[in-house]
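Residues pack. Consider this:
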Amino acid sequence: MRAPDDPYAVDAAFYDAVHGEGGEDLQFWAPFARERDGPLLEVGAGTGRLTLPLAREGHALTALDPSPAMLAIARAKAAATGLDVAFVEGRLPGAGLPRDAFAAVLFPADVFLACADAAEQVAALGEAAAALAPRGQVALDLPGPGHWLDPARNGEPVLAFEGRIDGDALLVWHVREDDLVAQTRVLRVLYERTGADGLARRAVSRHRLRYVARPELDLLLAAAGLRALDAWGGYALAPLTNASERMIVIAERAGEGGARA
């Protein structure tokens, strides 16, 4: 069972075995970070999947996450490799970020969807906007139109990962409940670990995600004092289309100039 104050304690134990370090999205985040001149804030940094590769490139990083279990792993890995990262336990909104401090605020891999509703999403974006240095940017990685909510598959166990953890076999199943009216997904993640004794040990986590489409995102950004500059349909910066599984959006404070997407 997860601790009541740690929504990702169960996931933390398996996260590195499932996701490793880096990932497909690093092909976007690494060049994006190189183009920024100043400190970066990563929201939902987890165990450091993106934090550590970016820190190795010499970026000054603040890694924000609400999970003590996730951060403990990230801190240990950073210390073991001599990387200087500022790890902060907290979430947006409510993290108490310094104003005008960051060249960019990064919301990787569906992190933004952890906000409970539109009001909380605006609040999170507003705090991110206030934390930006002049001409700083917010970047969000969200599900695209081709990877939208699908109630037709509600309750269906989907095998998301098959591999090993510390010599044991590991299966990870996703079971979702999608609600088109509320634009939410309740995702149960079932971890099944089988050791040499043949016994299967199971753990379950539960997360609620609030989806946004591109037109609504523009409204959320505007309500937070931001405006979109660019939007792409994948990590290789392909155009955003109905078939795009990812939606990458870059925004800056309204009134600071730049070409709108």
About this structure: The helical segments are 9-19, 26-34, 51-56, 68-80, 118-131, 214-223. The mean pLDDT is 94. The domain at 9-146+212-253 is CATH 3.40.50.150 (Rossmann fold). DSSP finds six helices and eleven strands in the chain.
